[in-house]
Sequence to fold (297 residues):
Amino acid sequence: MNELNPSSTIREFVQDGDRILQSDCIEALRNQVKPGSVDLIFADPPYNIGKNFNGMLDRWSSNEAYASWCEEWLQLCVKSLSLTGSMYIMTSTQAMPYLDCFLRERVEILSRIVWHYDSSGVQAKKYYGSLYEPILHCVKNKSNYTFNSSDILVEAKTGAKRKLIDYRGTEPKPYKTKKVPGNVWYYPRVRYRMPEYEEHPTQKPESMISRIVLASSNPGDVVMDPFSGSFTTCAVSKKLGRKFIGIEQDIDYVKIGLRRCGFARNLDGQQLNSPVKIFTRQASSSENSAGLFAGKA
Ligand SMILES: C[S@@+](CC[C@H](N)C(=O)[O-])C[C@H]1O[C@@H](n2cnc3c(N)ncnc32)[C@H](O)[C@@H]1O
Fold:
C-alpha cells in the first residue's frame, strides 16, 4: 500500500495502479481524475430519500437542490470519460427524471434499465410498494462504445419444454437458447447471510455489477465509482482484471474498500476485519420436542 498526499484533504491509497480516494467526489473528480481517462463509470449516489450513511443524512432541501448537486458531479463524470466510454447511473425512481433530462443533452442514453428485486422489508399496504431501482446506461459516442454482448448472455426463456425449431431458413435449426439480457434485471438484494455482505446500508450485488463491468469494459480498462460505499464496483473490477478508481468520503467505508480490494489488513493501527456474523436459528417445534425427548432418554 502506498499513501500519497497526506497533507491534502484527499487521502489516496494506490496499489498496482488501482486507486482508492477518501474524498468528496466533486473534489476528487475535479482534481484527481484526468479528463478522458476513464472507460466505465458506475455511479450509485445517495438517492435523497433519507438514508443514513454512517451519520451523513441523505436528504437535500428540495428536489431541485438534489438535482443541481447531481448535475455538478455528472458533468465531471462525463468529462472524465474516454471517447468510447460508458456510464451507468443510479438514483431513486422519483429523482431519475431530473438526471435523465440533464444527461440526454450531453450523452447518448442507450437503455433505461430496471433493477427488480423482492421486497425484504415492511410491505406497503395502501399503495404499490417499490420493487425496483432505475439505472441509466449511457455512452459518450453511440457509434463507438464497448459492449461485450457475448460475455453476458442469459438463457432465453421461451416457456416451451422441448427445443423449438426455426423453419424460416433453407434448413430447419433449433432456436438459439442464449440472448443478450433485456432492460429488466432481476438480482436479489444483498442479504446478511450472503458471503459478500458488508456493513453498508445500500450495498449492490456483485452479480449485477459483474454484468455491467463485463459488458461495458475490457480487461485492463479503467473503471471508476465516485460513490464506492462498500466498494462492490472496485472489488468486482479487480476480480475481472480491470483497473479501478474508487471514491468515497466516509473513512469507515474506505476501510471496507481497503480490505475488500486487498489493499490493507489494517489502517491507523486498526485491524480491518470482515463483518462478524452471528447466525441464530429458531428451533422448529419438531426439533424442540426431539430435544426434549432426547434429553429424557
Ligand atoms: C448508495 S451508496 C453506494 C453503495 C455502493 N454502490 C455499494 O455497492 O456499496 C452511496 C455512497 O456515497 C457516499 N457519499 C455520499 N456523498 C458523497 C460525496 N459527496 N462524495 C463521495 N462519497 C459520497 C456515501 O457515504 C455512501 O457510501
In short: The domain at 2-296 is CATH 3.40.50.150 (Rossmann fold). The pocket of S-adenosylmethionine is lined by residues 24-25, 44-46, 53, 56, 200, 202-204, 227, 229-230, 232, 247-250, 253 (CB under 6 Å).
